[in-house]
Amino acid sequence: GVLGSVASGQLSVEQSPEWRGVSEGQNGTVTCTYSSSIRSLHWYRQAPGERPLFLLMLHGKGSETQEPNFTADHDPGQKRSSLHIRGCQLGDTARYLCAVETQ
Questions:
Q1: Could you give all domains of the chain from N- to C-terminal order, each with its CATH number?
Q2: Which of 35, 40, 63, 84 is the 20 to 30 A CA-CA neighbour of 71?
Q3: Which residues on adjacent β-strands are paired with residue 3?
Q4: CA-CA distance, 22 to 75, in Å (whole number)?
Q5: Bond into 48 cis (ω within 30)
Q6: CB burial class (10 A; 0-12, 13-18, 19+) of residue 13?
Q7: How far apart are CA 68 and CA 54, in angstroms?
Q8: Distances from the Cα of 27 to the Cαs of 23, 86, 88, in angstroms?
Q9: What is the mean pLDDT of residues 66-95?
């Protein structure tokens, strides 16, 4: 798999925005794009000083929800996935990483 925006072989993975400030109670979105076909896509949350914590895995087109406030959607045709964080709280301050499993 590939974490963050590290490239492995012919596959590159990019995330945007690099940094995003969101007011408490607002919604936040992080988008991940990749360059070639994948088997699955995983979202992780890494709080300051902690190891990455698994949130969601997506196969194919569609969306998944991790209660109470994380939803991710995936469009393999567009080679992109977005993680939506609903009602951000101070405790949601973290790095959100996407990893992909190659074919």
A1: 13-102 (2.60.40.10)
A2: 35
A3: 99
A4: 25
A5: no
A6: buried
A7: 15
A8: 8, 5, 6
A9: 88
